[in-house]
Amino acid sequence: MQNEAVCPIPQRISLNHHIYRTGNVPDSLRHLILDISRAAKYIHYAIRNTEAGLAGTRNQFGEEQEKLDVLSDDIIRQHLCESRVVASYVSEEQSEAVELDPTAPYTVVFDPLDGSSLVDVNFAIGSIFGIYKGMHVIGSTPGDQVAALYVLYGPRTLLVYSVGNSVHEFILNEVGEFILLREFLGVADIAKNYSPGNLRAVNVNAGYRSLMDVWMKEEMTLRYSGCMVADVHHILSKGQGIFTNIGGGKYPLGKLRLVIECGPFAYLMEQAGGAASDGTQSILKKKIDSLDQRSPLIIGSKTEVKRVCKMLK
Ligand code: AHG
Ligand code: MN
Ligand code: MN
Question: I need a surface site. Which of 28, 214, 229, 289 has the fewest CB within 10 A?
Answer without folding.
Answer: 289
